[in-house]
Amino acid sequence: MSESRRVTACLLIIGDEILSGRTRDANLSYLARWLNGEGVELREARVIPDDRTVIVRTVNEVRRAFDYVFTTGGIGPTHDDITTDCVAEAFGVPIHFNAEAERELMARLIGPMTEGRRRMTRIPEGATLIRNPVSGAPGFRLGNVHVLAGIPAVMQAMLETIRGTLEGGRPVQSATLHVFAGESRIAATLLEVQERYPDVSIGSYPFGHQDRYGANLVLRSPDGARLAAATEELRQALIRDGFEPGIGEATPTPEDIV
């Protein structure tokens, strides 16, 4: 593990059903937290359609820009599951039926091996399998691209099979203060502290809660000492300016969030 290098990742959420609103993505926040635990920062996420040209172009763009790329969706048994073909095309390699992938699927298969099911054992040449302990049909890794299922329970199980295999940096730590004040009233204070701690990310997230408005102030850094110093300095600056910051996040209900 590198203690200094910033290791980055991008998520490609692939599927017309996400863009149409029929399906709500549940993988982004889970993957971001999982990657942080591995010392990898999720720096970008894109939702793209089941369009071969778009997928190939996007995979090639992001695999050159980030240390790791993760895709979710499009590796099922139907004709519109084209992620595997597109990743192979992006790398310029052929696809073959993979005997190991077939064994993995057969071990958990209920019912006959249909053509659709067998289609899920097609793996690009040179890829390594990402096991699927839930339903058997594996994902794969090709270069720095990890291809995962879109079903959240399956995606999460797949991630556990590759835990510890990524070359990460230091996990990003976070601290949170909350203050019952409008953002416009604390903006100058936030800027003052941010300018003294350019290596600490400081974000403000407004909310409305119990007929009061406020903001959760989230500080993030891989350096625990710098994070603690910036958090205490921000807390003291808010007190100086007449506010009463609380430790941790105020928890409004979803309908309260503004």
Architecture overview:
The structure is a single chain. The chain has helices spanning 16-19, 28-37, 52-65, 83-91, 99-108, 115-119, 152-161, 183-196, 224-240; strands at residues 8-14, 41-48, 68-72, 95-97, 122-124, 128-130, 139-142, 145-148, 173-179, 201-209, 212-221, 246-247. The protein is an alpha/beta fold and 258 residues long. β10 (201-209) and β11 (212-221) form a beta hairpin. Mean pLDDT is 91; it is low at 253-258.
Rg result: 22 Å
- Summed up, the domain count is 2
Helix-strand string: EHHEHEHEHHEEEEHEHEEHE
Q: What's the rounded overall pLDDT mean?
A: 91
Strand order in space, largest sheet: 2-1-3-8-7-6
CATH C-level of the largest domain: Alpha Beta
- Supply the CATH architecture of the largest domain: 3-Layer(aba) Sandwich
Span from first to last CA?
A: 39 Å
Q: Can you tell me the residue ranges where pLDDT is under 50 for at least 5 consecutive residues?
A: 253-258
For the largest beta-sheet, the strand count, sense and barrel status come to: 6 strands, mixed
Keywords summarizing the entry:
258 residues; alpha/beta; Molybdenum Cofactor Biosythetic Enzyme, Chain A; Alpha-Beta Plaits; 6-stranded mixed β-sheet; 12 strands; 25% strand; elongated; disordered C terminus
